[in-house]
Amino acid sequence: MWPGPSDQLMPILSMIPSAYLDHVIVLATKKFIGKSLDDPKVARNRCIERLNCWLVDLGLFYPSIYQSSSIGATVLYPFLALKFTIAELGTHLRSLHPADAATIVLHNWIKPSILEVPDPELSESDITDSDVPSVTSNTTPDTVRDLPLQPPPTVHSRHGSKTEDPFHTYGLRYTVSRSPDRSRTHRATLEERQEIFDTIASTLHDRCKPDQNDFYPSRGGAWFHLFTLLSENKIDYAGWLSDLFQVLKHHKSPVWTYYLFAKLTRANVRIPYPVAVDIMRYFIDIEKTQWALDVFNRSQSHQWLSSVPELLFALTDSRAVRSQAVFDLLKRPDYANSLPTELRSVANNPLSHERIQLVHHVAYAMAKSPLLTSRMAFRKVCDCLNYLQDRGAPLSSLMSRALVYAGVTRPLREGIWLSTEKFQWILMFVRRLEGDEVADSLDEAAFTLRSENLELDKARMKPLDEMQQEADHIAWEYRKRFGHGSHQSENITSPYKTVTPKRTRVQRRLEFAATVSQKESK
C-alpha cells in the first residue's frame, strides 16, 4: 500500500528542515519519477497513480509548495509537464483550486508551445538535470528558463475507431477540415510571442483573483477564462481542451463538463470536432441523452450523424421521441450520407448503405421501445418505411420484422384486436422481403391466435418469436460495433436468447398467495 499522509510520509517530512524542504521534495519527486518510468516492471498507469498520491499528500502536508510563487512549484511543474499530460495529472489538479490549476497549466504546459517551437531533433534523453535550474541558487520565477517541451497534444476521440466499420466511405476520401484560424504566434518573433503570453497571463490573473472579501468571481470559471483568452488570441488550444475534458470526465461531476461546454459555446469558443464527439459519447454512456443532443445541436457548428449514430438509439431508448426529431437528425447534410451518382445501386437513391442500415435499425428500436404503445410504435416504424421508400432506398428483412413486431406481435400480446386490413398490408411486405414460406407461417399463426380469442399459446407464437429472435440478433450485432452500452439494452436481446416475459401484477399476487398458503399448511 502506498503510504498515506497519516502513515510514513508525515513523520519523514517533519524531520526535514524547512530551509531544505523544497529542494528535497523536488529531488525526491524527480528520482521517484525517473526510477518508476525506467522500471519495465512498473506500468505507466501504476506510476501515474503513485505520483498523484504523492502530490496529494504533499499538498496536505505542505500546501504552499503548489503556490505559483514558491521555488518548489517553479521547478517541479516544468519537470512534470515534460513527463506527463494534463489528463494524467488530473487527480492532482482536481485537488487544487480551479484558479490555481488553470494558472499552473498556462505557465507550465501551454506557455512553452506559445514561446517556442521545440526542436524535432531534441529527444527526451537529451534533456539532463542541468536543464533544470538548481533550487539552491537564487532562483526566481523570472529567471527560470523555459524547458523545451512537447508540442500541444494531438486532439483525438477515445472512441474514434468505433464507427470505422459501420461507416466507411466506399473508397472515397473525404478531407475533413476543422482547423482554426491561423495562430497569432505563426511566424512571430520571440518578443511578440512573449507579449501575447504576458497579455493572456495578466488578464487571466485579473479575472480570477478574489475580491476584497476573498471571494472568487462567480461569473465563469478559471478554465472558461483561460480558453476564452486562448481563443481570442488565436492560440491553438484544441489539445489542451481535449485533455481538460478528460480530467473533468474522470474526476468531476458530469455537470462540470456540461456547463463548461455550454459556457464556451455561448462565448463563441470553437469546440474541436473530435472533442465534441467524445463529449457526446460520454453523455450517452451515462444516459444524459438531452445533454448529448444539446452538444449535437450546438450553434456555430456542423455535426455529422455518421460520427455518433448511437445518438438516435439513445433517443429511442430514453424517451418517447417524436418521429420528426429523428428525421431532423437524419436529414442533416452528412459526408457519409449521400452517394455520387456513379456509386448508386439505384439511380434515384441518394442514401448510402450505412444510412439505409441505420434507418432500418432505428425502426426496429422504435418497434421494441417500451416507452411507446404498440400503436405509436407502429406509426413510427411506418414513418421510417416511408422515409426510405420516398428516396428509392432498398428495404431489408429487418424492416419487415419491425412491422411484424410493432403491428402484429405487440397487439396480440397486449390483447388488442388485429384488423385484417392492417395484417394483410404487413403480410405484403413480409412476402416481398422474406419469401412465401415465412409469410405463410406468419399468416397461419396470426389467424389461429385471432380465432381463439387472443389466448396466446406458446407453440403457436413460435413463428413470431423466431422472427423476433433473429431480428434481435441482427440489432445486437449492429449496436455492438459502437462499443458502448447501448447494445446491452433491455430492449435488445443477445443472440438467440429468449427474453423472459415480465410477470403481471395478477401473477405476482397469485404466486404470493400460493406461497403464503403453503407456509400455513406446514
TrEMBL record:
Q: Which residue intervals are annotated with compositional bias (Polar residues) in the record?
A: 131-142
Organism superkingdom:
Eukaryota
**Which stretches of sequence are listed as region Disordered?**
121-162
Protein name per Swiss-Prot or TrEMBL: Uncharacterized protein
Which organism encodes this protein? Aureobasidium vineae
Lineage at the top is: Eukaryota, Fungi, Dikarya, Ascomycota, Pezizomycotina
